[in-house]
Design brief:
This protein is α/β, with parallel strands linked by helices and 262 residues long. The chain has seven helices and nine strands; from the N terminus they run βαβαβαβαβαβαβββα.
Length: 262
C-alpha cells in the first residue's frame, strides 16, 4: 500500500471539524476514482499546534473523539509541532503543559499514532514513547530542519537514535539548497529501504519517512510504498509544510496510467 497522510488545520472546533469533513470527502472521492490503485489516505494528522484551545482538556478530548468518529478506520496521528520545527502558533502555555497534553491523549487512547520531536531530548522522547507503547499507540519520531539538508552520516545518526529511543516510524524533513541535496536524500532513502549498507549494523529496522521540503523536493514526496517511504503527505485546502502536493494531484502522479474505469 502507498499510504498518504493529510493534515487537519484550524483554530476553532468548527474550523477543524469542517476541514476534517473536507479531507474525508476528498479522500473518498479520490479512492473511488482510483479504486483499483493501492494509494490510500491511510493517516489523518491532527495538527494540534493550530488549535486555540489545545490547553483545555474539556475542549481537546471531545474534539479528538469527534475526529476519530469522522475518519472511521483511517489512523489518527496527533502532532503538536513546536515553533522551532515549523509549528503554526506560539503557545507559551502549551509549552509548559505539553506533557499533560500528551498524557491526556495517550491515556484516552484518542490517537493511533503520536508524533514526538527528536529534539525534545532523549529522556522526554523515551518516556513519551514508552507511554505510547503501553497504550498500543504508534510513535512517529520526527526531525525537521528548515535551514539545510545535513550530511548523510548526520541523518543516519539521527535515524538510528530515533530507532533506539522507540520510534515506530522514523521521520526526517529537511530543506535542500540545491538539486543535489534532493538527489542525495532520495539515494539515502533507497539505501535504507533496500538495506543496502555495507555493514549490517548500519541498517534500520523501522519504516522511514524522508522529505525534502519546498519546490525542489517534489520527487521525494513521491517515493512512497514498498520501494520508498512508509507514508507521504498531501494537503487539502492549505499546505501544512513547504512543497506539499495537493491530494488530487498526488493521486494523479502516483497513478500515471490514469483513473480506474468503472
Amino acid at each position: 500500500m502507498r499510504r498518504v497522510a493529510v493534515s487537519i488545520q484550524g483554530r476553532t472546533y468548527d474550523e477543524i471539524i469542517e476541514h476534517t469533513r473536507q479531507i474525508i470527502e476528498k479522500a473518498e472521492k479520490m479512492e473511488n476514482k482510483y479504486f483499483d490503485s493501492d494509494v490510500r489516505v491511510e493517516i489523518i494528522e491532527f495538527r494540534a499546534d493550530y488549535y486555540e484551545n489545545i490547553c483545555i482538556k474539556t475542549e481537546l478530548l471531545p474534539l479528538l473523539q469527534e475526529i476519530k468518529k469522522m475518519i472511521g478506520t483511517r489512523k489518527l496521528l496527533f502532532t503538536f509541532r513546536s515553533e522551532e520545527e515549523g509549528g503554526e502558533l506560539r503557545h507559551d502555555r502549551a509549552g509548559f503543559m505539553l506533557e499533560d497534553i500528551y498524557d491526556w491523549v495517550i491515556a484516552g487512547k484518542l490517537a493511533d499514532m503520536v508524533d514526538i520531536e527528536l529534539m525534545s531530548g532523549n529522556y522526554r522522547v523515551a518516556r513519551f514513547a514508552s507511554k505510547c507503547h503501553d497504550a498500543g499507540i504508534e510513535v512517529v519520531l520526527s526531525y525537521h530542519n528548515f535551514s539545510e539538508t545535513p550530511r548523510d552520516d548526520k541523518l543516519m545518526e539521527m535515524l538510528h537514535n530515533m530507532e533506539i529511543l522507540g520510534g515506530d516510524v522514523l521521520k526526517i524533513a529537511v530543506t535542500p539548497a540545491k538539486e543535489l541535496d534532493v538527489r542525495r536524500l532520495n539515494e539515502l532513502t533507497d539505501k535504507i529501504v533496500t538495506r543496502g549498507f555495507r555493514e549490517e549494523k548500519d541498517n534500520l529496522n523501522k519504516p522511514i519517512v524522508t522529505i525534502s521540503m519546498g519546490e525542489k523536493g517534489h520527487s521525494s514526496r513521491l517515493k512512497v510504498g514498498d520501494d520508498g517511504c512508509y507514508f507521504t503527505f498531501a494537503y487539502v485546502g492549505e499546505l501544512s509544510a513547504p512543497g506539499q502536493i495537493e491530494l488530487e494531484d498526488i493521486f494523479a502522479e502516483l497513478n500515471p496510467e490514469g483513473a480506474s474505469e468503472e
